[in-house]
Amino acid sequence: MGRKRTSLLLTAFETMPIDYPATRAVVEKRLEEVRQYRQIGFIRQEAGITMNYEPRYHGSTNTVGKPAERTAISNVDRENELERKSILLDKAMGGLTKMQREVIERSYLDDEGEYDFISCGEMGVSDRTYRRIKADAIRILALAMKLEVYVEREAEERCFEKIMETQMVGESYKLK
Predict the structure, then answer these.
(1) Which of 4, 92, 131, 167 is most deeply packed, by most CB within 10 A?
(2) pTM of the predicted structure, to 2 decimals
(3) What is the mean pLDDT of the chain?
């Protein structure tokens, strides 16, 4: 048996206070979004214009509604965002090993929708090894695409809320 290779990103993942289930959900959501974009493409919104034959009397707001402009800007921005996410995923996938890349492509990016136990049988690895490779690949993708969710932030926010509540209770006690 050879020495197990550990990625520098995986070592960083273990040392930082990262909420793994939340991070995994964010990465899976991004992978699904990119998969849909690559398979279907971008579906543009269309402006829904309904004519009204009665005049509408408003106050003098001097504002003009521009639904077509908002729709056009939204379409361009959304398409550019999806293209940027796809390119970023390609760059992040370049940092994975060959086996990790194949697992991610089979699990999330292929349009066939194979189950994991079928994929691991075709790849010639056990189910446990397949799940371990998949988890490591998701961790690396999370760090490479900067999608990690930290536990510390949530704890700090809750702690800050509790401090504020106790200070408000203390101030109301002083006023009485």
Answers:
(1) 92
(2) 0.68
(3) 78
